[in-house]
Structures are given as C-alpha cells and as structure tokens.
Amino acid sequence: MSEIIIDGEPLPFIEGQTVAAALMAAGRVAWRTTRVGHRPRGLFCGIGVCFDCLVVIDGVGGQRACLVPARAGMTVTTEEDGDV
C-alpha cells in the first residue's frame, strides 16, 4: 500500500483513491474550517463543484482534494483556519 504525507504524517491509500477518499478512509471527515464561524469542512459534493475540501498539495494551495488522485510521496497540508 502506498502512502501520502498529510500534515507531516504518513497516510496509506489505495491506488485510484483521491486525496479526499484517503482522508475519509482514515476517518478524517473535516480538515479545514470556514473563515466566518470556523465551521468544519471536508468532503461535501465529492465532484469538484464546491470548495469545502480545499488543501495544499505539494506547495500549491486551493486544490480540491476530491479531484486530485493520491500519489505516493505526495505532501498534503490541511488548514484549520480556512486560508487554504
């Protein structure tokens, strides 16, 4: 099984999973918060229409975790302050 790095920690994933699917499979249902109200956000639509699942991938912010296929060695940073 391959691994991606989420917030500095290894996370296994199955080939074909998106970053969001790997996070959900690991039990993480929220990985950022809204700017107003600091409400938890994670996977919502799952098809790239909304922006609830944003993460930083390999240094590039604003990536929709539901659209990006997980790759071995990928570095993902989540944001808890809504500033992805």
Walk me through the structure:
The chain has 84 residues and is mostly beta strands. The strands form two sheets. A five-stranded mixed beta sheet has the order 2-1-7-5-6, with helices on one face. The chain has a two-stranded antiparallel sheet with strand order 3-4. Strand 3 (32-33) and strand 4 (40-41) form a beta hairpin. It has one helix and seven strands. It starts with a strand and ends in a 7-residue tail after the last strand. The protein has one helix spanning 19-25, and strands spanning 2-6, 9-13, 32-33, 40-41, 54-57, 60-64, 75-77. The mean pLDDT is 92.
List keywords for this structure.
globular; about 80 residues; mainly beta; 1 helix; single chain; about 10% helix
Strand content: 25-35%
From the spread of the alpha carbons, the general shape counts as globular
**What oligomeric state is this?**
single chain
Rg, rounded, reads: 12 Å
Cα distance, first to last residue? 28 Å
Query: Major sheet, described briefly?
Result: 5 strands, mixed
- Which stretches are low in confidence, meaning pLDDT under 50 for 5 or more residues running? none
What structural category characterises the helix and strand content?
mainly beta
The ordered string of helix (H) and strand (E) elements is EEHEEEEE
Q: Output mean pLDDT.
A: 92
What is the strand tally?
7
- Helix share bin: under 10%
Number of helices, counting only DSSP H or I runs of 4 residues or more: 1
Strand order in the largest sheet: 2-1-7-5-6
